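User: My instructor asked us to take a sequence, write out its structure as tokens, and then describe one feature of it. I'm not sure where to start. Here is the sequence I was given:
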Amino acid sequence: MRKIVDGITAFLTCSLMVVMVLVACWQVFTRFVLGSPSTVSEEFLRYALIWLTMIGSAYAYGKKKHLAVIFVARKIPEKHQIFVNLIVETFVLLFIFVILIFGGTKAYQNAVGQVSSALGIPMEYLYLSLIVSGVLFLFYSVLNLAEYFKKHKKLSQIN
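Assistant: Let's start with the prediction itself. The structure tokens for your sequence are:
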């Protein structure tokens, strides 16, 4: 299941990045060659960057490539590192539920009826990125917890 979600997420982020580069090139072309900048591309790039950041951060978290302060955790014996990781995952889950899912749902509900100025798309699509990334973060966090419990089980069988 992880490989499927990783593949879909990687494809979406890479595709969005390619589209953003093309739209940015179009923006530069219209601004400097045609002398009339495209307002639609500017707004699209702003919203696409938000989506790219939210989905990309969940993907990086799932791949364990996110920023982390691990020099303290490395000094702790391995059997105790599992407990530190569990505490960190608990805080991550709390953040996911409170900020991304609950807060994202509230922001989504507040944006209903609003429309973006240049693109004319409903603003709730922008705030949907919080909920989608929250679900992705939740998925990866549950997988991380399962891995930690497996690792803890193996360590306790060895000792």
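For the description part of your assignment, you could build on this observation: The radius of gyration is 20 Å. Try explaining in your own words what that tells you about the chain.
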